[in-house]
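Lab meeting, action items carried over

1. Structure of the two-component assembly. Owner: GW. Status: complete.
Input record:
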Amino acid sequence: MPSGEDDLIARYFKPLATDPGARGLVDDAAVLAASGSDLVLTTDAIVEGVHYLPTDPPAAIARKALRVNLSDLAAKGATPAGFLLTLALRNADESFLAPFAEALGTDSLAYGCPLLGGDTVSTPGPMMISVTAFGRVPPGTMVRRDALQPGDRIVVSGTIGDAALGLDLLQGRAVATSEADRAFLIGRYREPQPRSALAEAVRAHARAAMDVSDGLAGDLAKMCAASGVTAVLDATAVPMSLAAHRMINSSAAALQRILSGGDDYELLCGVAADQLDSFLAAAQRSSVPVAVIGTAASGTAAPQWLDANGCEVSLTALSYSHF
Amino acid sequence: MPSGEDDLIARYFKPLATDPGARGLVDDAAVLAASGSDLVLTTDAIVEGVHYLPTDPPAAIARKALRVNLSDLAAKGATPAGFLLTLALRNADESFLAPFAEALGTDSLAYGCPLLGGDTVSTPGPMMISVTAFGRVPPGTMVRRDALQPGDRIVVSGTIGDAALGLDLLQGRAVATSEADRAFLIGRYREPQPRSALAEAVRAHARAAMDVSDGLAGDLAKMCAASGVTAVLDATAVPMSLAAHRMINSSAAALQRILSGGDDYELLCGVAADQLDSFLAAAQRSSVPVAVIGTAASGTAAPQWLDANGCEVSLTALSYSHF
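Predicted assembly:
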């Protein structure tokens, strides 16, 4: 006597629940076996019309829902162990669920993060997808956000600002210089690339880390505030893609968009000076590009962003806030 | 430079994050320290207008959100270890958030289940509260849903049907015989009482268990199907509150509502015959009333519910389904 909800789970999500701890999704709970590791827990939800556009492809939405959580695990130096999925749906629409589940399954294999369980509920409102992801680290080694110290070098992975520009393109607020640039930037908005390959280097060599999701400037300010330090940043050292370079001019407004746009899902790390070479070498081995953009300093003032002339860049909004 | 979202978290939820693993809610992730226990994971979301009424008091909504998850942990024989909270809000309304957070804090202390972290997002639609709860059991001892065997006695805790009648009263589909009965039944709908006190007895003596959330008849059918067995039940043995007794007459429609109404958050257990006395004694020590309502049997037919004359009760809908 399976209900519609049970049918939906059996059809679309049971094939993804390959871990024995998922118990084939027939139980009320999943189990993660005892191990010598600390368990790192993170949860991020995405809401239709807020975190993704109703017109985004279902496969891209699935990837975003899982990957924003994998990005948090990577920032903590953790190895993925599995995830729980909560879906709030208006209806059980096969044309959405089939590609959504397929993409989620492909990603869960690629990142070694199996589906362990979840909940499916109906909602009369916008769709919402909430993922709770689990990772493991050796006891006591989770990399914290609040451990940055004066003198630590500030390092960021990948390129910054692409996703914000991609959203601008999708929403008609900007025009790309070519179709290829447009596709690249929109792809960066729709499909985060969690830096899981960098997790081991972060755990081994970074003193503090977080992922950049709400905007580099704001997230850096949060890391500094949590750690009780400030920082001096070289805005010209912030790594940008060629597509982003081509789109922006040198106006303050464009730089503001790059530094505070959000949805980057890159890693922001504080690395002690004597660990920097080891970190850079480990990053190179993992094939993730990283760039040193500044240095932490004593004090509790807001971090300073300096331009090519050493003048402070004035940022009017540092990051995205929901309220 | 705290954003509105960070302000909200610091103001309302940081006081609840007393566990060192919560890291004061300043990090992107929480940590559960390595231990010799298996970790039991469960997640349940509640949506405004679907799982609770917009007019329900904020404190009751908080308690329901956490307790439906504590109920799952109890059914698995697990001791609570903590929870993650995801809130999707239309706005940061203090008149909602203050009593909501206060009630959540009181419950988290009462049940020994501290807030470890979470996510707060905005939504243009109905409010949604998603909780992921963690519990611990000795390795390999999580009590499964799919382990029921022929001959096992079927036991249920507390009383069944109160919450369904409470919802009927709230929605004007029924009238109570007294104000006291009305208040009792509505309370049973609004504020589940997770049977955490019974968890140890379940782990020690039950072969299979699940919580009753979608309706006793449907949940029992799920347990039988998952276990590859059937069962014969005595409908007259299903424990009912005096308030429920006073409300219903003996019509099949009323019995149907009791057996399939849902929101009971009682525990349904399969107990091997030679463990029954020990289970009943342990339940008595925990002060949770339990009742034996039937016996599992070989076969894959739907479970049979028999009335006082030994005639099969015909149930047209076994449980609530979202789709």
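2. GW to write a short summary for the group page. Key points so far: The longest helix of chain A spans residues 58-75. Chain A has two domains: 4-137, 153-306.
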